[in-house]
Structures are given as structure tokens and as C-alpha cells.
Amino acid sequence: MKTINKIIWAAVIHLSGDDELIAVADEDTLAPLLGWRYTEQDRLIDADGRCFVLTPELGFANHSISVNEASELVQKHTFNEGQVCVTKIFFNTIKDAWRAI
Fold first, then answer.
1. Distance (Å, rounded) from C-alpha 62 to C-alpha 79?
2. Rounded CA separation 62/55 (Å)
3. What Gene3D superfamilies does this protein map onto (predicted)?
4. What is the CA radius of gyration of the chain?
5. Contact at 8 Å (CB) between 71 and 97?
6. How far apart are CA 39 and CA 47, in angstroms?
7. pLDDT digits over 59-93, tens only?
8. Over the chain, what HEC string results?
9. Which of 47, 32, 37 is nearest to 16 (CA)?
């Protein structure tokens, strides 16, 4: 898994069509999750916002997200957990957003 060395931790798994995020702290946390079945739209997003395709090879998806997009994902995730005032959630970095999960 050469690509795994390029991931900046922490990261999240964002399943397509779902507001829930799965926190992935490091390579050891990710390893058992790679055995799941994913769609082509599911992705791992690292602390720099880079997206990776969730295949056993974990390929780079040639797409990145911004800190605003990361904040929106955390807002949706937090709202899904029943939290209130989620529109006030904003982060300065993507790494901070993922750490808040």
C-alpha cells in the first residue's frame, strides 16, 4: 500500500449519500476498514483535503476538498448525531475538522 504513505492523518471516510463520517486516526485504524465494500463514490479524505478511492490499493481520486467543505461535512455529521446549532461550526483547517469528530 504505497498510497497509504501519502495520507496526512487524521482522516475520515465519507460514504456517498450518507452524512455520517467515520474517523480514521491512522494507518492501524484504516487497515480493518479497507475490507468493507465501498461504492466508487465513497472516499477517504485526509487532513489536507485530498480524496482517496476506497479500494484495497487506496488510489488517489484526483480531487480535494476545501476547509469550507470539510466544515459542512462536520456540520451534517454533527446534525445527524442530534446536535443543535451546527451552522456555527467552522474550522480553520481540515485537520481541526476531522479531530472534532
1. 29
2. 15
3. Uncharacterised protein PF13642 yp_926445, N-terminal domain
4. 13
5. yes
6. 22
7. 888 899 999 999 999 988 887 666 656 566 778 99
8. CCHHHHCCCCEEEECCCCCCEEEECCHHHHHHHCCCCCCCCCEEECCCCEEEECCCCCCEEEEECCHHHHHHHHHHHHHHCCCCCHHHCCCCCHHHHHHCC
9. 37
Instruction: Judge whether 14 and 49 are in contact, CB under 8 Å.
Output: no
Share of the chain above pLDDT 90, in %: 56
pLDDT band of 40, cuts 50, 70, 90: confident
b vs e for 42-51, b when ≥16 Cβ sit within 10 Å of the residue's Cβ? bbbbbbebbb
Q: Half-sphere exposure (CA, 13 Å, Cβ side) for 88?
A: 3
Report pTM: 0.85
| Ramachandran angles phi, psi of 31, nearest 5° | -50, -50
Q: Are 94 and 7 spatial neighbours (Cβ–Cβ below 8 Å)?
A: no
Q: Which amino acid is at 31?
A: A
